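quick one before i forget lol
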Amino acid sequence: MAGGGRLFTSETWKNWDKSGKAEVVQTLKQLVKDDDNPGLSTSDRVKDLSRALYELLSAIVKGQLRRDYARPLLTEMVNWHGDMASQLVEVAAVLDLETSGQGRSREPLLALVKSLDADRLLKERLEIETLGDAGVVKHKKNFHTKQIKVKTKLFYKQQKFNLLREEAEGYAKLVTELNQDITPRVTPDSIIQVIRSLIGGFNLDPNRVLDLILESLESRPHLHQFYTGLLSRYPCESATISEILGFKLRHCTGTERDASGIYTTIALLIQADILQLNDIYVWLSPDDSVMIEDYQQEEQEAKELARKLHVISTKDKDKEKEKEKEKEEEEKERERDDPNNWSKYGSNQKIQLFVALLKVGAWDHFVEVSRRFPDNYLVSCMPVSQALCRLIHATIEPLYRKLCGLPDRVSGRTVGLVDNPLAPAPVHTIPELSHSVFPMLIALGPYLHHDPALMYKVLRVARHALKLARSGGEGSRSSFYYEFLDVLDEALLPALSMMDANPCTAQELWQVLKLYPYQHRYKLYGRWKNETCQQHPGLLRVRSHLLKKAKFIMMRITKETIKPVSRSIGKLTHNLPGPVLHYILVQVQLYDNLIGPVVDSFKYLTPLSYDVLGYCIVEILSDNKDRIANDAMGICPWLQSLSSFCGTVYKKYTIDLGGILQFVANQLKAEKSIDLLILRDIVQKMGGTDTLEDLTAEQLDAMCGGELLRREAGQYQQERNTKRSSVRLKEALLEHHLGIPLLLLMAQQRSSVVYNQTESPHLKLVGKLYDQCQDTMVQFGSYLSQVITIQELNERLPPIGTLLSEYHINADVAFFLARPLFVHMLNSKYDELRRQDKGEKKLTLEQKKQRYLEACQEVFTPIVSSIRPHFSIKVWEDMDPSFFLTFWTLTMSDLEVPEHVYQKELKKIDTNPSATKRKKETERLVALKEKLQEEERRQKEHVDRVYARLQQEKDRWFMLRGARSPKTDTVTAFLQLCLFPRCTFTALDSIYCAKFVKMLHSLKTPNFSTLICYDRMFCDITYTVASCTEQEAHRYARFLLGTLDTVMAWHASPANYERECASFPGFVTKYRVSRQEANDYVDYENYRHVVHKWHYKITKALVTCLESGDYIQIRNAILILQGVIQRFPAITNLAAVIEKRIEKVKSNERNRRNDLYVLANSYSGRLKAIKPSLMPETDFHIVPKRPPPPTRTVNGTAESPAGTTTTAAEPKTPNDVTESKSTKMEVSGAANGEVEVKEEKEDKDSKRTESPSKPIKEKRDASDKKSNDIAEVKKDEKDKDKDEKKKEKKDEREEKPKKKSKESKRSRYEEEDYGEEERHGGSGGAGEKEREREGSVASNASSTSAKMDPPEGSPRGTKRRKTEHSKGRGNKEKDEAWRRDKLKERSKSRDPDDQTSPKETKKEKKEKKRERSQEDGESEGKRKKGAEDRLKSNGRQEDDHKHRHRDEGEEYLERHDREYEKHTSSSTTTSSSRHKRKN
């Protein structure tokens, strides 16, 4: 169709044969359909028939459409409707006026007029000239003369009556005939014959006869069928009757005569189509425009009242005048709403007629006349609405009595039916109700409140019909179910708003509304609150008054005024709860201290008001309000307040949870996790399930026990307070099928929140959102596992393989969800196998363990098969899938029994009867004590069975690896896939991980190195700390504390170490293939060195984070320090270093980032409190003697660096101590933190032929000789350094501008240096006879987890060695080559016979190698000191001054850094060369 108001386009006429004709025919038929007068446009109609005909005929006149093409259509159109020919002539007359005076352009119009074949209509309506030109009239002059005569006779000639000839007897007989008793013999046909005889016999005036008939109908309206039948046979026109009735109405207007009979007569005649409404309507007053103007004025007053509600005046108010105005307004409202006040309608004849139409049941005519006015204007007049209510009463009465009749002993008041066959028929079925009554109710709208009894009838009938529709009985869901929603929207809910606090009606309405799902209800509430109230002036006034009272109440609500305020709020929300509750929620968002009083004041609300409250909460959450505050660093306070309010109100009152739960699910689908705050508070307060993060250590220990112990000692809240609300929450989740979907959505959102939220918000907020998602998921999953049965969970939860593949959920979450199912399957199978034995009760513990092992084998074998394909094949080369499944399916309650918690709870229970205890209470305590004891016994048996299973499975957990893959790959896979993901999952899981590693060690698990595992954990935790969120930092601290507890327990005494570590496989340093020789183990003193290195590495990592300046790293470092303060720091020097960094954080973050300042200040106090209990380094382990620091020359004077001491003893490193103990254990303290374990297969033949060791005297001579050589080499190096300094001074100015660029490239140079050292080290050791299989731990413990990996090119990732840049590296290589040549020449010249024995030569090589590494370190230190001297000479005295005055803590860290680097360089070179050679 065309735009701009046109119905057809030019394409319609061009393609007439193809599609144009069909389009025109379809449009015209649609406009003509079901319309008695198609030529008139209606207000609800967009396309007009007259417009369509005009475009069609205009196209013919303009030549766009050929007349011979359109003529068949015009001929056919005349037969479509009786008035179609009249419409065509009307359009032709319009075209005649448009083309008048255009000459030839009129020829198509004249031809068209001639072809219409409607001469009579054309002669009536077209001009004489046009008729003559078209040939319709042959003689225009004669036709004009004839036309004048006819019009004169019709309009100007008056019929004369001779009143003297009329006889009174005729009228008397007529009155007698008209008012006789109507019997079956008396019919309108017989009476009309009598009337005709009387008129003819007595020469009566027909108009007076008509008047008498109307008088008779007015006096006997109950016989309207007889009189209307008589009038239909009487020869009179509608205009004549309207004149007579109009005269009567005008006469009654000036008198006090009751004119209700006249209006009834008019209504009956209109209903019988004897009188046309348009004919009588012109006789009625007032004018329509006056009535519409009054309505608009009333609407404007209501809008002004609503506007003033939001206006705050700053002028001084006169309270007395304000009160007077309020009284006047209240009086006006009372007069307007008074049902007995008919004064303003008494003079309105149109209103009286409309009432009469409804009284006689002329519903169709009432609908027709109501279109002349704005919507709901007529029904807003009280007489009209009451008349319509009576008509609905009469129509619905039979069906109401059929479905909802009162008992026989109760006599109800029946409503009489309308005695008029033309009135709407009484309904007897539900479909008839939808067809007849619903349009009346919708037209009545909010003014249904005038008849509360009718509302009850409609609601009760609808409730019965809806129940039938839901059960599949009578009543179609597609018709009545949805049509009644319109009735609720247009009539019932608005009518409730107009009532005055009627809770009974609200309750009855809720009984119907609750049969609909919340989606339909919330849609109704939305229109009721936001749209309907704005459409009706009456509702606007009601809404304004309620909000005014609500503001008054909210200003006075406190804890002390809850009782009166709650009653007032209840009254306000009975009729229109939406706006009032919305305003209250706005106040709650602004002032969180109102949550408690407001929730308590809701106790008098109706169920409908509670449901509307749920909608208002969802509506507010759905607004696009900003949820992030404080420059994207936190959640807005309004959301936190509303979340707390939701949890409280949903717990206390019965409100449908479907809407709020679905809203959270929709937000998760949209990848918005911030609204999980709502779900967390609801689950916490309704389900009584709190997060495990806030539990104390004792409560966490209790959570390791059974269900009863967890309930008694592991939670703050009591179960009895949340029992009912928990059941309601569970039913809502199951009813709306949201339990498992919410869990899966949270799991998916947890994996993606970091990537979706990192673009704009601060990382602090991202961490909060991640923690919120994680905590809510764990909390919600724990709640579901408590309230949902295993069968229900099994039906709804997808298999573990589907979770990992299709839903893309990580293993930690997948096993968290599926773990209860696995436990149930295992227990069920175990019980089944026990029942198969005949002597089930007589089974021994060993037999039970055997049955348990069989059950594990049957249950877990298919699960292992299902998870194997979801990981790479390389993963299963390092560990067996059964170990992976075992780790993820076990919990703390499977590994240990918290006996001390059980004993503590048992001691609390006082079972002794007393005067204050009742008998039932004593019995309850006795039963509780017995249950706790029984639970403890059962858990001990369960733990024994689990350990038996672990003892059986441990041999196949870790495979014996070949030389191509080092042993540390196994530890890496274990850390990456198992330990790190779970230790940060929950607080209980962090404790479990620490316990599990200790359990692996205690079980003496083959091919698992406890030492390597701990070393990988502790050596570099920088990236782990930096990548944690706040809650993950707390959990990681718990994990570190658990592992440090184990490590320090072994460190505490040699007895503990010998008992738990000395002969365990986890502490083997060399595995012997030959069974005749024992493996080598780490002794106690070397273990203390290792533990010291771990403490040092932890300190270094945390100091790096504290010095980074990054908010996340500083916060996480302090949180971890707070979490492990019971075990770390344990050494005074390390504590001093940490304390200094903490003080620096305090000074930097004060008045800048106050939360960091508070954290640092808190830890500082705790650290000072434990200082007296710390031990010095000498007590922690045997401290090796330090080498003398190299001297440097300043202004010709040699001086040592500040803060160092010079000793003459030979330096002895931790590596020397290790080798002196002959354990083959190399402990290196470099930045990569390597611990190397060597497995050797020694050649027995070479052992037999091994020559005896050198005497001690020969060793001393060799060492003296070497020391002399070293001294000479040092002297040569000094001379060489002096020459180099002269050369470097010349290039000093050129190097100074490039300093910054060199420093920026330092990390790259260090990485290259590290690779160069490995390449050089790979060439040594080619002549060894032993075959070794060696595994080395990678340089970074954090690289085991994909989450903890640093990005490539990270500056921190390259700090593995402290090396010089490219120029220094080249000089270093030259120096090393020159020094080796010098040593060879001196050794040959001094003692040529020193290498006679091959064994002595080998040892000599090792000693030389060690000394060379020491000399390399010393020469490197000299170069550094020389660089410092050069910087000082160029104006860098201040930096050098700071360097000389470093405190003891910094010296300590740097000294150990240098030592660990030197020790690592030699051991790493050897091990890497061996590893490369074997690969």
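fyi The beta strands are 628-629, 634-635, 1068-1070, 1080-1081, 1192-1194, 1197-1199, 1226-1227, 1235-1241, 1331-1336.
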